[in-house]
Amino acid sequence: MQNKIEKPFAGFLVRFFAYITDMFIVGILLFGFKIPAIIQSFSNPNGFFVRDVFFNYTFYDVIAFILTSLYFILMTYYCGATIGKMLLRIKVVSIEERDLKLSEVVVREIFGKYLSALIVFIGYLMIIPDEQKRSFHDRIADTRVIYVHEEGAYKRFNELKAKEEEERRLRKQMMAAQQMNQGYNQAQPYFNGSTLPQGSTTMPSNQVPVISENETTRPKDVSEDVSSNDQDIEE
Question: What is the tens place of the pLDDT at every residue in 119-156?
């Protein structure tokens, strides 16, 4: 079962070769822009193509970045894969098994890949030990790279993961319910009247004193007390 779960995901090497193929293709497409920059660098070193226009980047560098980004964004958004990925039969998919959003693709291809390469390409190297072969830009965009012929296996993988999450949630609920029952069973003797300690002020009903019908609790009349006192004085 473990092999079936790992099988749909494309590993580091196949993704690396797909990227090399894409950059070769992009290099060919940008060669038309590179020729004027090369000519101008010899004829006019301060020319527009070779002069810094954005920090230390020349006009050609800016154009190359924009066209390269558009290539990866548009190909991934509309086709799910660049030409390099198509040749190696892999594609980018959403973790929710739906069409990719443009915002997700932009985050993945520009910001995510920039951060992945920022510190010695550690974001790309995260693919190697990860169970689902996720790079850093895959994590922040909630995407996966899978083999095209294993889309069914990827769907089964998500179903198994969802089932595992549901079982884990049910186990947590059962453990919480058991803990509550244990706490209730431990506290129950303190609320049971039959187990109160001796010396309690509770009196059984058969020992409660009963007032007879002949006895009255009406207070004596004050006038009777005064008349009895007058008789005592006359005597």
Answer: 889 999 999 999 899 999 999 999 999 999 888 888 88
What is the mean predicted confidence (pLDDT) over 80-87? Answer: 96
- 11 pLDDT above the threshold of 60: yes
Return the pLDDT at 39.
75
Residues 83 and 25: beta-carbon distance below 8 Å: yes
Burial of residue 92 (number of CB atoms within 10 Å: 0-12, 13-18, 19+): buried
pLDDT at 215: 52
Q: Say what the pLDDT of residue 180 is.
A: 81
Please report the DSSP string for the chain in residue order: -HHHHHTTB--HHHHHHHHHHHHHHHHHHHHHHHHHHHHHHHH-TTSTTTSEEETTEEHHHHHHHHHHHHHHHHHHHHHSS-HHHHHTTEEEEETTSSPPPHHHHHIIIIIIHHHHTTTTTHHHHTTTT-TT---HHHHHHTEEEEEGGGHHHHHHHHHHHHHHHHHHHHHHHHHHHHHHHHHHHHHGGGG-GGGPPTT-S---GGGS----SS---PPPPHHHHHHHHHHHHH-
Label residue 162 exposed, middle or buried (CB < 10 Å: 0-12, 13-18, 19+).
exposed
Residues 6+ apart with CB under 8 A from 158: 95, 97
- The answer to whether 75 and 82 have CB atoms below 8 angstroms apart is yes
